Amino acid sequence: MVDLRPESFFDLSECTFSDLFAGIDRAWDVIPKIESYVKSHLTPGVDGTVMEGAWIGADVHVGEGTVVEPGAMIKGPTLIGNNCEIRQGAYIRGGVLVGDGVCIGHTSEVKNAVLMNASQVPHFNYVGDSVFGVHAHLGAGVKISNLKITRDNVSIVIDGEKLDTGLRKFGVILGDWVEIGCNAVCNPGTVIGPRSLVYPNTSVSGYYPADVIVKLRQETEVVARRKR
Fold first, then answer.
1. Is residue 122 part of a domain?
2. Residues 36, 37, 39, 40: what is their CA dihedral angle, to the nearest 10 degrees?
3. Which residue, 192, 156, 199, 158, is CA-closest to 177?
4. Which end of the chain is more exposed for a tag (fewer CB within 10 A), N or C?
5. Over 90: is that where the pLDDT of 7 sits?
6. Residue-wise over 38-50: b if at least 16 C-beta within 10 A, else e?
7. Residue 220: inside a domain, yes or no?
8. CATH number reported for the structural domain that contains residue 46 in this entry
9. What whole-number distance in Å separates Cα of residue 151 and Cα of residue 139?
10. What global pTM score does this model have?
11. Is residue 224 domain-resident?
12. Distance between alpha carbon 56 and the CA centroid of its chain, in Å?
C-alpha cells in the first residue's frame, strides 16, 4: 500500500507552516485548504524590498530580504517568506503560500499553491493547485496542467487502483528535491516522490515513487543535405 501522507513527500520538521498538513491523509487533500490557511495567518505588509514598477495587492505579506522586481504582480491573499526572489514579470494570483529562499521567475504564474523553502519556478512556468517540497525545481518552460480537458474530477491510478481525488483542479505534488526537466508537462494529478527526476520534454501523469528517473527516449536521424 502506497503511503500518500504529506510526510512521505515532505520533511515538515523545519516547515514554518507544517500545521497546514495536520490531519491530512493524502497529500493532495491540502489543496482546498491553502487559501483559507493563508488568510488566517496573513499579516499584510512589506518587510522586504518592492522595486518601482511592481504591483502589490492589499492582502499580501512580503518577508524580510525578499526582493520583488519591476513588472511583478502579486494579488492576495499571498504570504511570501524571507529572502525570496520575485523576478520581473512574475504573476502571483493569490492563495499562495511561499516559504523562505524561493524563486518565482520571469513570466512564471502561480495560483493556489504551496512552495516550500528553496523551491524554484524560475523561467516561463505555470503552477496551479499544487504543492512543492523543499528544493523542488522546474526547468524552463515546464507547465503544470491543473484541469482535465473533460472538466471532471482528477483521478490517479496507484497500484492498479483508480482513486478519485475529489478535486476538479489539481496540478502536482512534488516531493522534496524533485527536478522536472525543461519543457516537460505535468498533467492533472501528477504525484512525484522525493528526489525523483523527470527528463526534459516528458509528459507525465499519475504516481511516481521516490528516487526514480522518468526518462523520455527519442530517436534522431541525421542525413546529408541534398545539393541544390
1. yes
2. 120
3. 192
4. C
5. yes
6. beeebeeeeebeb
7. no
8. 2.160.10.10
9. 27
10. 0.95
11. no
12. 21
